Fold each of these.
Amino acid sequence: MKKLLLALPKGRILEELKPALQKGGIIPEPDFFDESSRKLIFQTNLDFLEITKVRSFDVATFVKFGAADLGICGLDVLEEFPSNEIFRVVDLKIGKCRLSLASAKNKNIDPLNLHLNSHARIATKYPNLVSAHFANLGIQAEIIKLNGAIEIAQKLGLCDFIVDLVSSGKTLVENNMIELQKILEVSSYLVVNRTSFKVSNQQINHLVKLFDV
Ligand code: PRP
């Protein structure tokens, strides 16, 4: 029997996932949480389930194409890459943060009058979300796609604004930036590939119940 594959995101969210897995009674093999392990696929105590860890943006891609049957993915990623092949089944209420527009503190930008900036240059990991948001505001946005360390782009004069995830706010404070506008409230979702949902409905429903406690 082919096992189901659950793709989990690497990084800080993995720590928050530990209790969620525990609560659902899903126990990965010991080296899953070992950062130094180079293994790609891990077994669990459930005989029909294997897990893997990939970059958070890649979770959506693996699930979209059915390479992974299920995944855990932030709403930021799901909104950036919307797909009819990905069902959002449980809001796990972990990995909570927000996607926000920010700028340098000393620019004194009035968040209520953003439309006065008829043109804005914005660095972000989320070009689709950001262009849709600014189109709604009637602001012409030039978007610069980066893959990380977005805050430095503004510091080095690459852009006027950034759009990035804000959790504690520490990164913005330490880089003399302020949050101007919240664009999206984010938490992590259990997602399922559409075809897997049909083909392995019984096992997937069982898993959904384990997570939905
Ligand atoms: C994320 C995000 C911010 C930071 C916000 O970066 O992109 O840079 O966390 O967190 P804070 O509000 O608690 O300071 P991450 O550490 O995931 O790395 P990245 O910059 O490479 O994306």
Note: The first strand starts at residue 4 and ends at 9.
Amino acid sequence: MSPHDDVEEILLDTETIASRVAELGAQLTADFGDRDPVLVSVLKGSLVFLADLIRAMEMPVSIDLMEVSSYGSGTETSGQVRILKDLSGPIEGRHVIVVEDIIDTGLTLNYLLKYLADKAPASVRIVCLLDKPARRLAEIPIDYRGFTIPDRFVIGYGLDYDERYRNLPYIGVLKPAVYAGAPPEG
Ligand code: IMP
């Protein structure tokens, strides 16, 4: 039984992701090269993207990790955001780059941006690997975007369904049979 068996279709293969992440890293290097930014990433889905992105940035960077929950083991975004893990260091006066795996309704990031703004950073920019604009409820100023994808529930490259599939090396669409009945709404 392999996690690959539950994939209906590969949306973005490993090579496509790698070359886009390299481009994003080069862009961030050009824009932030001498600013000593702190990359604030949101666990757990962004972990794989963050790991690859920082290695594509040829400059000094630091990272910090937050964990928030916008929904439980299901897939529906509630708009209720709870901080499970806070920043470990101050960001006052720092250039912050928020690293997100996917922006769907935008409610999670909308909350997070206000939270970060209260800590008086010098600037906040957003890099997201996947933009799923179809169900956007909060307007998010995305500064760096990997890919725009259709309104489908995706897994792999860090993204999960019920905590599984994060280790798939590509981004794929989950077979409907896996969530039998209620379609995930991400
Ligand atoms: P938002 O608040 O609706 O923008 O949701 C953002 C979070 O929902 C992401 O950081 C993911 O953890 C999760 N999410 C949204 N869409 C998907 C998806 O297609 N697959 C897996 N997780 C998703």
Note: Strands lie at 7-12, 38-43, 62-69, 82-85, 95-103, 123-131, 144-148, 154-155, 171-174.
